[in-house]
Amino acid sequence: MLLEALDVRPGNVCLSISSGGDNTLSLLSRAPARVIAVDLSPAQMACLDLKVEACRRLEHADLLELVGAAPSSRRLALYRAIRGGLAPPAREFWDARTEDVTRGIGHCGKFERYFQLFREWLLPLIHPRERIEALFMPRPPDERRRFYRDEWDTRRWRLLFRLFFSRAVMGRLGRDPSFFRYVEGGVADRILARTEQALTELDPSRNPYLQWIALGRFAGALPHWLRSENLEPIRANLDRIERRVAPVEVVLAEAAEASIDKFNMSDIFEYVSGVAADRLFDDLARAGRAGGRVAYWNMLVDRHRPERLAHRLRPATELSERLHRTAKAFFYSALVIEEIV
């Protein structure tokens, strides 16, 4: 979805909020000239670094094992085979976390551990294992709606879901409390509505994120960067990543005017005030090259470019809405795409 939103072309210069690295790696499959991976968190950058070396040096089956997407008793051996290629900060980070490596790096983040609590403790109180597995059987839309209505959408499901995904519980166990600083109104009911849409209007059997949350594994679907057909295109362009552990505002301020074509801003605007968001949009408009695009997600905070930048950032509303209707990352309320004029 991000690749279509940004329309990344060979030779483009991209800036990408690194996060865990998955989307940043996917950008490489389109052969951009550069991908500037930016994140405030050294831990997120260490995660990207490990995935880069895994893509560079492992075969596809081994990559799935290291991430935790396939059963394995040799993840530590796979890590040791690639650790020499890591930059010292990433090597030190993972050397100190061999238990996380052994478990599979896809399971070791704070939000992943939060979903593990949901999967192992809460979901079994709501539905038996057979029904959870049945959720991911391929079905036509009418049958998915019937299954959700008659078998899944119980009073206990709604009650415990609202409790677990409340602002208080999610802020304590799942996300940093600062994530909610600019959120107005309730949280759980909005997430519940999006989850219902993902379980009925979209196909859970083709949604790797739902499968990971509910089953702790991928069951018939993989994220873009982990699909076998994308490994070689990503591998061919790994040296085009530039890593920056810094605020994105600093990186944008240092960028020359009209020097970047495509921006993956992730959900960064959830974390900043309206004033700070406006400054970021100014930076994007200045550093962005005409004909390029900016993409970002709104989850609980509604952000768009200010009207005063209408001459530089033009909403691609139809494309945004069409792509968002198919979004497998279902918990976001909107995908926003803005074209650089």
Strand order, biggest sheet?
3-2-1-4-5-7-6
Uncertain runs with pLDDT below 50, 5 residues or more? none
Instruction: Output the helix-strand order.
Output: HEHEHHHHHHHHHHHHHEHEHEEHE
Characterize the biggest β-sheet: 7 strands, mixed
CATH fold node name of the largest domain:
Rossmann fold
Query: Kindly, what is the distance between the CA atoms of the first and last residues, rounded to a whole number of angstroms?
Result: 22 Å
Radius of gyration: 20 Å
CATH superfamily of the largest domain: Vaccinia Virus protein VP39
Under the CATH scheme, the architecture of the largest domain is 3-Layer(aba) Sandwich
Shape estimate: globular
Percent of residues in beta strands: 5-15%
* Number of distinct beta strands: 7
Query: In CATH's first tier, which class of the largest domain applies?
Result: Alpha Beta
Whole-number average pLDDT?
A: 93
Determine the fraction of residues in helical runs and give it as a percent range.
40-55%
What's the number of domains?
A: 3
Counting helices, strands and paired strands, the structural category is: alpha/beta
Describe the structure.
It is globular and about 55 Å long. It is an alpha/beta fold. The relative contact order is 0.15. It has helices at 2-6, 22-28, 42-57, 60-67, 75-82, 88-95, 98-103, 110-126, 129-134, 141-152, 155-164, 167-174, 188-200, 208-215, 228-235, 248-254, 274-287, 317-325, and strands spanning 13-17, 34-39, 241-245, 260-264, 288-298, 313-315, 334-340. It folds into three domains: 2-45 and 224-340, Rossmann fold, CATH 3.40.50.150; 46-108, no CATH class; 114-215, no CATH class. It is built from 18 helices and seven strands. The longest helix is centred in the middle third of the chain and has 17 residues, at 110-126. Strands 3-2-1-4-5-7-6 form a seven-stranded mixed beta sheet. 50% of the residues lie in helices and 12% in strands. Helix 8 runs antiparallel to helix 11.
